[in-house]
Fold this sequence. Notes:
Blueprint (H helix, E strand, L loop, with lengths): L7 E5 L18 E5 L2 H8 L5 E4 L6 H13 L4 E3 L8 H11 L4 E5 L6 H16 L3 E6 L2 E6 L2 E4 L6 E7 L3 E7 L5 E7 L8 E2 L7 E6 L2 E7 L1
Parallel strand pairs: 1-2, 1-5, 2-3, 3-4, 5-6
Antiparallel strand pairs: 6-7, 7-14, 8-13, 9-12, 9-14, 10-11, 10-13
Amino acid sequence: MQVKRGKRCIVIGAGELGVTKLGEFDEKRDTVIAVDGGLGYCEALGIEPDMIIGDFDSVDEKLAASIEMAEDRFPEKVLRLAPEKDDTDMLAALRWGLARDFHTFLIYAGLGGRLDHTLANMQCLLYLKNHGAEGYLLEEKGCIMAASKETKQFPASMSGRLSLFSLEKESVVSIANMKYPLSAYTVTNDFPIGISNEFLPGKAGAVTVHSGAVAILVKWD
């Protein structure tokens, strides 16, 4: 699935990376934030982050030494957060990007690992949406995005599955050109009617959110 280009922020968390390279990474155009233990993934991928943000309370000794070295050499590139805070490390990183006028956030290693972090990162997608930005939680063959009062379109070449879940008590959605279509249907946050839809060969699928907000999970073949 193609993600709109523009001023983009690549965010690498500390969950399960699930990829051996960053799909659309453009070293000259994109800004990279390593979130806490995500610095280790940056080192493994051979990527020099533009910013390192986190409380670093759970990194191993080797990574802690790398962070301290970065603080000594480039203090402006490290934002050390207090462990006792309201924001997660990921949300703090997204706030940093929003404050610098980024509008597209590609988030790697934001899934897997601790379930509470995964759920928090899904909420962060809605936070970005509510602040005029787009966020994508990416893995090798999958993506999660938030949608609110808009249409998300998928190319006719897409194959795989799509699930959606209401992020509010009720959301009204339409699904077109997929195996299980819906027309202005009210989905709720306590009944998973939107799970495991399928893309149709040669059909450009679309999800329209008329009201409310949903999380859209795509798994492609």
